[in-house]
Amino acid sequence: MHFFAYASGRLRCEDVPLDEIARDVGTPVYVYSEAAMHRQVQLFTDAFQKVPHLICYAVKANSNLSVIRRLADWGAGFEVVSGGELFRVLRAGGSGNKVVFDGPGKTVEEIRYALDSDILFFNVESAAEADLIVATARETGKRARVSLRTNPDVDPGTHPYISTGMREHKFGIALEEAHELYLRLRDRPEIELVGVTCHIGSQITQLEPYRDAIESLRTFVTTLRQEGISLRYLDFGGGLGIAYNGEEPPSASRYAQLVIEATKDLGLTLILEPGRIIVGNAGTLVTRVTFIKNQGSKRFIIVDAGMNDLMRPALYGSHHQIWSVSQKTSTQVADVVGPICESSDFIARNRELPSFEPGDLAAVMSTGAYGFSLSSNYNSRPRVAEVLVRGSRYEVIRRRETYEDLIRLEL
Q: How far is residue 43 CA from its own chain's centroid?
């Protein structure tokens, strides 16, 4: 089911024409479908319903308070990677005891905040971090629940910038080192060892890397049990991909079948950390064409959204489909570029696109994940508005920044 579709020649998000949102709110603007997000949460919930599990949405994908609030209402937990993300979850009504805290560089202040918030557990990524959590727990008089993020050295076959489970990456702990660290931590009174964790990367479109990783974890959990370390949780991370450009990633049900079959005899509660698959295809960035520029054989469609608004093409060379908000039949080959003073400020290169003219509206699809959350004020550009659609109604869930907002914290 697609929640962005044409009706009477106008592109709509659910039942709201995008040109109406652009007229009322301005451009650029991120527009999200609530129904699309809810459907993905329901698909994951249904896929894992036969086993104990907790879906912990990866807040970094899209951290808007309204998005988090709805996910909390739908029963989700949360995966956070900073004190700021934890603050957002709690402010939006999420429960600390349904939060897992990832990240290789947690600070003392963040650890204290998480302990005070009674989070479900920390995913520990190094022996040094474990020592810091021990010291902080002792100082605060609390006991920290921890899981070690193990590194199974599996190649997920994704972009190297979003691959996280191999030896050359900064994330996780090699299995043999993790084994030693479990043995060292099991008798620490400040620590409760509750789980084992694995996260091999993002935008993964094949099941084989997951199969390899889960087999490594099975063996590892069995070894720990033989040495008297019994755990409660298996956190298998996230990373399941979405369709940006014709990819056919496995469904939530196929993914769940693999994970459940490989772990059902372990008696552990599964923690899943989906992010992109929940919000990625639920969002679009609506931008207006400002100029058409022909330079030699090149044709440039210049729009009012820049790389500060959507970093993924510049950062990863990522592909986003670009639709015309007013349905067109003719096409042209062109680059879509923004107003930023960088040669990497592009959304598409040498792409066959609708025949855009100045003033037309373009929708950059599949931008609900790592769109606004990666945006910045580069070139002193105010960050854009965010809108959430529900059926035939919409609401602004983040107002457009003003020039005054740019300097509000400066002296």
A: 17
Catalytic residue among 13, 56, 198, 341: 341
Helix (H, G, I), strand (E, B) or coil at 124: strand
Among residues 40, 77, 80, 44, the alpha carbon closest in space to that of 63 is found at: 80
Per-position DSSP letters for 209-222, written without gaps between them: HHHHHHHHHHHHHH
Domain boundaries along the sequence of the chain: 4-32+280-406, 35-277
pTM of full prediction above 0.85 = yes
The residue ranges of DSSP E strands in 59-109, in sequence order, are: 77-80, 99-101
Q: State the Cα–Cα distance between residues 211 and 319, nearest whole angstrom.
A: 27
Give domain 35-277's CATH number out of 3.40.50.2300, 3.30.1480.10, 3.20.20.10, 3.40.630.30: 3.20.20.10
> Do β-strands 10-13 and 16-17 pair in parallel, antiparallel, or remain unpaired?
antiparallel
13 part of the active site: no
- Residues contacting residue 369 through CB under 8 Å, at least 6 positions apart: 61, 62, 242, 275, 276, 278, 279, 280, 283
Chain segment 24-35, per-residue pLDDT in tens? 999 999 999 999
pLDDT in tens, 180-215: 999 999 999 999 999 999 988 778 888 888 888 888
- Which CATH code fits 4-32+280-406? 2.40.37.10
Closest CA to 54 of 221, 233, 195, 217: 233
